[in-house]
Amino acid sequence: MNRTDTNDKLWIVLCHLSVFIGAGLLLPLIVYLVTKEDSESPIPAHAKETLNFHISLFIYMMIGLATIVIAIGFLIIIVVAIGSCVLAIIGAIRASNGELYHYPLTIRFIK
Questions:
Q1: I need a labelling partner for 40 at 20 to 30 A (CA). Which of 6, 7, 84, 98 fits?
Q2: Mind giving me the DSSP string for 49-92?
Q3: Residue 105 lies in a domain
Q4: How do residues 39-80 score in pLDDT, each as one tens digit?
């Protein structure tokens, strides 16, 4: 494996794990904007998928906050928080194996 492949894999895995380093929406957005013109690189596809995932998570959390008054919001927030951590780890593992992981229940805003 050459240095470029290792560097690509690092950025891809960092995009998937960005929720853990406190850069959930920002890191995949920056990586996508910087690499979207490179048609041969796998990085833009992973960054776009992760970005869509984080936008969807934000929407689901807002729904949870809006429904917190009727008590179901607590459940939604807990499920979204746990699900985001588990799915980010699964995405990072699959990405490190060279697969493009499509997150479930993700709205595809960026095509």
A1: 84
A2: HHHHHHHHHHHHHHHHHHTGGGTHHHHHHHHHHHHHHHHHHHHH
A3: no
A4: 788 889 999 999 999 999 999 999 999 998 888 889 999 999
